[in-house]
């Protein structure tokens, strides 16, 4: 199954800002959608824009194309309005999540977590950079680390924060889109951290990783609740950003038949919706619960049309 086949088109929200950005002897505009990347790519294809003009969340288009794009439906907005719309949609890719920035930011984070082990950090970063990853990649790693920062602030000590951060670094270090990924990642953590941390600390990191197979931490497990909520932060993003996440998941499972992918995905999402609460921390539940439930329900409705 081609992972692009899963995209859906919503006919609204193509925006373009004035051609103010100099490059290559001309000036460029930014063409975006505040609804979905699918809509943006479809509009660009109709207009004959080359794929190389796409840059993560927008197309760079020369001013010579501006009038025709507007005539064909792109809405003229100011540069500030375009950025605000893109941020509000959740489709904006901040500079820190761009490939040229990610390795530097993550390397600095690792250095703060385990200063004596730079080689281990490089090994993990290499695993997270594998080409077959579409969602479970360096952006997911950084997003998880950032969610841990917010969820744990004022609630954990330095040792506990280190364990949470190590669990994040290892939790999808092995990713082959199989049911064994969590177990293999936990094994890798135990192998690499043995002799560096105490047996108790290594066991805790391993236990946190294994929790992500079902996201069912015990009420008494403070670190487990924080870590599971951080891993599920993506479920509560604005609908267009959630769609981008779902499309990336479909790409990772493109080796499955579309109906089998839908059945498995419906089962996973349904198990989350069946829980009294998806998020088990007070902060996570207050900020993310309602949006996550809406996103999961909408995706299940879409997946049912594949069956």
Automatic annotation (TrEMBL):
Q: In terms of domain of life, where is this protein from? A: Bacteria
Location of the DUF4031 domain = 14-87
Could you say which residues form the signal peptide?
A: none
Question: Which InterPro entries does this one have?
Answer: DUF4031, HD_phosphohydro
- State the Gene3D superfamilies in the record: Hypothetical protein af1432 (1.10.3210.10)
Question: Which Pfam family is one of those matched by this entry?
Answer: DUF4031
Which protein, by its recorded name, is this?
Answer: DUF4031 domain-containing protein
Source organism of this protein record: Glutamicibacter uratoxydans (Arthrobacter uratoxydans)
């Amino acid at each position: 199954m081609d992972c692009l086949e899963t995209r859906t088109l919503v006919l609204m929200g193509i925006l373009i800002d004035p051609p103010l950005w100099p490059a290559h002897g001309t000036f460029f505009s930014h063409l975006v959608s505040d609804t979905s990347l699918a809509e943006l790519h479809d509009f660009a294809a109709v207009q004959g824009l080359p794929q190389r003009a796409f840059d993560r969340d927008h197309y760079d288009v020369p001013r010579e194309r501006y009038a025709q794009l507007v005539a064909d439906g792109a809405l003229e907005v100011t540069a500030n309005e375009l950025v605000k719309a893109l941020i509000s949609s959740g489709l904006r890719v901040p500079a820190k999540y761009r490939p040229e920035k990610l390795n530097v930011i993550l390397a600095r984070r690792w250095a703060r977590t385990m200063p004596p082990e730079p080689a281990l950090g490089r090994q993990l970063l290499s695993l997270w950079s594998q080409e077959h990853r579409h969602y479970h990649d360096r952006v997911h790693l950084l997003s998880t680390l950032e969610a841990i920062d917010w969820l744990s602030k004022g609630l954990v000590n330095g040792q506990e924060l280190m364990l949470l951060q190590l669990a994040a670094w290892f939790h999808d270090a092995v990713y082959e889109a199989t049911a064994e990924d969590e177990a293999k990642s936990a094994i890798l953590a135990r192998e690499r951290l043995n002799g560096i941390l105490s047996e108790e600390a290594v066991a805790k990191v391993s236990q946190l990783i294994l929790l992500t197979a079902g996201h069912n931490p015990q009420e008494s497990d403070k670190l487990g609740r924080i870590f599971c909520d951080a891993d599920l932060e993506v479920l509560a993003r604005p609908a267009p950003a959630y769609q981008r996440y779902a499309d990336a998941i479909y790409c990772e499972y493109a080796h499955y038949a579309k109906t089998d992918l839908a059945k498995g995905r419906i089962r996973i999402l349904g198990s989350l919706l069946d829980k009294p609460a998806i998020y088990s921390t007070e902060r996570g539940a207050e900020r993310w619960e309602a949006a996550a439930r809406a996103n999961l329900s909408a995706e299940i409705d879409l997946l049912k049309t594949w069956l």
